[in-house]
Amino acid sequence: MIYWRLFISFFKISAVGFGGGYAMLSMVLSVSKGLGLTVDQFTDLTALDLMIPGPIAVNSATYVGYLVAGILGSFIATLAICIPSFIYVPIALRYEASIKNNPLFKFIMDTIKASVVGLIIYASLTIILGIILVGDVSLNRILDSPFSMISPFALFVFIISAFVQIKWRRINPIFLIAIAGILGYLIG
Q1: Which pTM value belongs to this model?
Q2: How many Å apart are CA 129 and CA 118, to the nearest integer?
Q3: Could you give the CA distance from residue 51 to residue 133 in angstroms, rounded to a whole number?
Q4: How confident is the model at residue 79 (pLDDT cuts 50, 70, 90)?
């Protein structure tokens, strides 16, 4: 049953999802592919995550749940992603004093941080390729003809946005997203 698959998938993501929403995106991507979503839909999800207020993990679960199974699927996936937090937080608060300065715990957390960086990089590369490349974004197709799949407009917007954000860090990313959306509407 699709509702049970949604619940279990997002419960697992939240139960082991260290590093916040961006680190969870790679896990959401793998779940999304298993549920039949495309890379284009995943990149749409990341754009919506930036525009809609709220935690990335919750927004992602809500979006994927809705695409897969409608309003009820949205509710079930959102509930599943929230439940582990209601379990973990009271336990962590109860034992905070005993684990706070534990060297083994610090070592474990440092190791987890390294894997979180890898998960964020994976999700970022998937999003970048999903936006810049046109059509079927399979690895074989990318290796066969990488330049024939590039969307020049998307690549241009990506490079300019990255340059502006790096050069002038005080510019609000929401402003860049709005400008890119307007350009996409006018040109597309």
Answers
A1: 0.70
A2: 17
A3: 22
A4: very high
